[in-house]
Amino acid sequence: MQDAIQIHVNGQARAWRSGATVADLLQELNIRTEQVAVELNLEILDRAAFGQRQLKNGDRVEILGFIGGGSF
Fold first, then answer.
1. Dihedral through CA 21, CA 25, CA 28, CA 34, nearest 10?
2. Rounded CA gap, 62 and 38, in Å?
3. Which residues contact 2 (CB under 8 A, 6 or more apart)?
4. What pLDDT, on the 0 to 100 scale, is given for residue 71?
5. Nearest Cα to 66, choosing from 52, 43, 47, 41?
6. pLDDT at 56 over 90
7. What percentage of the chain carries pLDDT values higher than 70?
8. Left, alpha or beta for 48 (phi > 0: left; psi -120 to 50: alpha)?
9. Domains of the chain by start residue, with CATH
10. Could you identify which of 3, 24, 48, 70 might form a hypothetical disulfide with 20, taking C-beta atoms 3.0 to 4.6 angstroms apart as the criterion?
11. What is the pLDDT of residue 68?
């Protein structure tokens, strides 16, 4: 296994593997990429970047889910 790093996901500390991408994290958490927005260190990521952005020690990831609604 690769070296472990420490990241924060939605405010919770988590050990993660070095070299993994945002897409890897979402897959591990069983989160479909088309249903979320991801903020990495206060930067909103484009979905196309999920597979290229590697997570680094100390990164802060916020995952925001979309919910549909009806009319009032």
1. -100
2. 6
3. 17, 18, 19
4. 58
5. 47
6. yes
7. 89
8. alpha
9. 4-65 (3.10.20.30)
10. 24
11. 65
